[in-house]
Amino acid sequence: MGNRWVVLAVLFSIRTTMAVQFQSVATVAPLLKTDLSFSLGDIGLLIGLYSVPGIALALLSGIIGQRFGDKNTVLAGLALMIVGGLIMAFSPSWGGQISGRVVAGIGGVLISVLMMKMVADYFSGKEISTAMAIFVSSWPIGIGIALLALPPIGVVYGASVVHLVVAALIAVGASLLLASSYSSPSVSTARSSGRPGLQAAMALVSAGLIWGLFNIGFAMIFSFGPSMLVERGWSITAAGSAMSVALWLTALATPFGGILGDRTGRPDAVMLSSFLAIAALLIFASRTEAVMPGIIGLGILCGLVVGPIMSLPTLVLQPATRAIGMGVFASVSYVGLVLGPALGGKYATWAGGAGAAFDFGAAALLICPLVLWVFYRFQREVNIPVSAT
Questions:
Q1: CB 3.0 to 4.6 Å from 106: which of 53, 286, 289, 295, for a disulfide?
Q2: CATH code for position 140
Q3: Is the separation of the CB atoms in 184 and 311 below 8 Å?
Q4: Cα 200 from Cα 356, distance rounded (Å)
């Protein structure tokens, strides 16, 4: 499997299935409320639990991958994701749902950090922004697939079958990787034991905060958007289809965001303007019946900002510090992924409607410009040789 674009395609497919599993709880949230008597706060906690293991394991994932091999570690992570999905399918109790979600999340964090490193290993150089943008676009595509395909399955067959279908998709991804002849390229032999310096580490923490805060706002759209529309009288299928529009637009816009940042030489301007516009649209969408213009705008803007954000770690990392550095970035961002849906769900429950979660997401986006300023302050103190990228 020497073609790196084929490698990217396989990793893209696997990450797509991870996004489908992440979104599976939100897409059947109305069913969980009626069939299992879960509150919006319970659902938000269940969504966030998928990312809990990342706080502890993201930093270790690169080390684990070096010890057991990237491919073997990713396959083990996929196996855990399948087991977690099966637990949720066959244990509808609250304890079973929590256990399955955490097990699946452990698998998810193992593959997430390792696959980012694998993409960087294959595309270190001038094509890294394009490759990362394509790789990251798998997430909105996976969520879009979940929003379109899972609600009808849930309505007809129930939430348990939804988890079984997702587990089967993950198994397909595992089969693709297992059948491949993937091997780490020579660049990955740089020892992951190299640690970023203090200034680089602080810059990575700042970048992780930006990614985490952005994902809080992004998660509010697709975690609570379907429930908001159902509260307004939409069917669960129609609500999922409407919200999926934003996902497909995000996926399409993501590569163009990276190109826009590179061509203008001002990725900071792309990020700043997008953060403010997304926050404004979140507030607008939660207060109007004409939701489609807001959904369309959110989809495009969320896509444009992804590439510039994901390029931030590469500004302070060299090959020798890549594994641990990506782990630092992911660890911090996972905190946002964990706390965001849970806090958003609690706030929506307190406020009396799912639309309030959009306001919570807008507040998170408005913090990003300040953290971005902090990142560039630390980044200016880090000297990265041109050959390192």
A1: 53
A2: 1.20.1250.20
A3: no
A4: 36
